[in-house]
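3.2 Worked example (two chains)
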Amino acid sequence: QVQLVETGGGSVQAGASLRLSCFASGRIFSGKAMGWFRQPPGKEREFIATISRTGISTHYSDSVKGRFTISRDNAKNTVFLQMSDLKPEDTAVYYCAGRESISASTDIDDYEHWGQGTQVTVSS
């Protein structure tokens, strides 16, 4: 089975940057589209970014577009989320997700594999 492990979270000041990493094991990573989601305290999990198998296609939520960048290194079975100009409203648990498809998707229901999540806290 596919296993996903997120790293890189932490507590930072507003305006800072963080890079999250997600390592995938158990199956062929290069054959899967990937996504990042987040769940703020007391709220539902929401879409952030997605990337196709090759990385040629990406999509972002309006709340992070221009500040966050999703990328992948298939040789290392890893997907990244580079976060810049972090804001207090970015505070959430961030989850890496994979789907059994080569196509990127913004729909949470399209993803079958999920990591444990990593906490990102941004103070003003």
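3.2.1 Second chain
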Amino acid sequence: QLRLVESGGGLVQAGGSLRLSCVASGRILSSHAMGWFRQAPGKEREFVASINWNAGSAGYADSVKGRFTISRDHAKNTVYLQLNSLKPEDTAVYYCAKSRLYGTTWYRDTGDYDAWGQGTQVTVSS
């Protein structure tokens, strides 16, 4: 079974940076898109970024464009999210996920993903 394990979260001051990692273990398929989502207390889980299976394209939420970067390394079975210029409103639990479908595109809807990690906490102080 596929397992996704996030790491790299922590406490950082506003304007700082973090790099989140999502390592896939077990039986995996490399032809799926991967995504990052986040959820703050009392709020819905929201799309952050997604990258297609061959890393040829990626998409971002408007709130993080220019600040966050998603990437993947198939050899390491790992997806990354680089978070720069962090703001207090970025505080949330960050989740990585695998898409249900495979192909050449990426997805921004939670319903398009069928496997999720346990999340890693990112806290940005002001």
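3.3 Remarks
The chain has a mean pLDDT of 94.
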